[in-house]
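Many introductory courses stop at the sequence. We go one step further.
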Amino acid sequence: MQPLPSGPLLGPGDPPPFTVYNEGGKAPLLLLCDHASKAVPKSLGTLGISDAELSRHIGWDIGGLDCAIECAKQLDAPLVTSGYSRLVIDCNRWPGGEGSTPEVSDGTLVPANVGLTEEMAAARAEACFWPYHREVDRHLDRMTAGGRKVCMLVVHSFTPQMNGFRRPWHVGVLWNEDARLPEPLLAELRKDQALVVGDNEPYSARASYEYTLNSHARPRALPHCSLEVRQDLMGTPQKARQWGRRLAGPIGAAVAAALPGAALLYVETMANPNVTVADLERLGAIAVEAGVPAAVDNTFASPYLCNPARYGFEYVIHSATKYVGGHHDLIGGVVAASAAGRERLRLVGIDAGGTMSAFDAWLCLRGLMTLSLRMERHSATALEIARFLDGHPKVERVHHPGLPSHPQHDLAARLLPRGTGGMLSFDLRGGVEAGVRFCDALRLIWVATSLGGVHTLVGHAASTTHRQMEPAARRAAGVGDGLVRMSVGLEDAADLILDIDRALGAA
């Protein structure tokens, strides 16, 4: 049994536990390499084996790193790689489980792993295993922000011979029950008649010890699989890179097949919470040309300010709880649809229910009587408040399409000629703490998550509606730490500005 190193397992001069390549890659694909390195922390010496043994396949996936880097380059995909030998701790095995810190690997005794205590194993996991997998999670959080669909592919390599059996496969695709990515990848690889392609060969992703696919992709329902390349084909960095270029085409085609074209285009007239205006004219035309039904959530604009149906949208959706009802006193929703769309919705309604109560329907009809008057007042007051906030020393940025500084100001003028609505948001200097202080200091304005009623409401996104998102993912979605969303009601504009000004002083 090896003694536990005194102090941290990793010290100065040790490589990092993970490396990221092409972090800004735009492809809807995250590449991983679990066994990219043969490095050993200095505190563990050589694990009691020779450098020659560490350089064998027992220490790492020979050629895997160079192949994965080239794939990332060709596909413009981010790549996360592990930083330490699989003999220190295997990043594709459950910590503490089978093969995590093997005492014997392919006939080679690893003295440093003999009699390893739980404390020793936990120290290795904390230093070398968990940082890598946290980085994988961070990337997936960022890449899937806003509902974006992505695939995950893990690159491995395998020995040409095992237990006296000469393995005939050049490449293998390992997968479990999710066939979305592996089936098209197998089909694409088999188009190359020079390749012998293994389906869950030479290993299977159905093995219980598989960690990476089961802990990252499966819980997120992402298309995923592993790709194995035979090591004797990648004996030099140059050959490994050649294989990366050879495999990039099939991988890219498989990803495209696993993430098929949309069955529905769904968009908001103005996005929540940063009030980005969608180009409904262009998007509607694209949907019509592609033959894809298009739906738009028009809640922020209301039917008075915008009519998306004229741009080719088959479904126009409103939360009747908001501007249509207008008084924060009903629960309901409205979908206006084409004749064909109405029939499809009728069938869904039969199966799912969702009929508005008679009283809520009456309240909704009552609200419609004053919709035009309310929307004009909401729009005028919101614009006045946006102008007050714009340039305020405590405010970093104001998001309201009525301001000339808004990036979609000209577009909003075309789509919303009657007014730009009662919704705005702004980024406070000082981040999360400033946002909370601002909301706490308000007296006239209510802190609540709804919108579209007679009372002005605010919410600090980072501490309420978006609090469960990782900060990096939240920022990637355009929601800053200090972002406050405001639904401007029907109160006097001067009174609202006085309340806002006083609260900004406390922020």
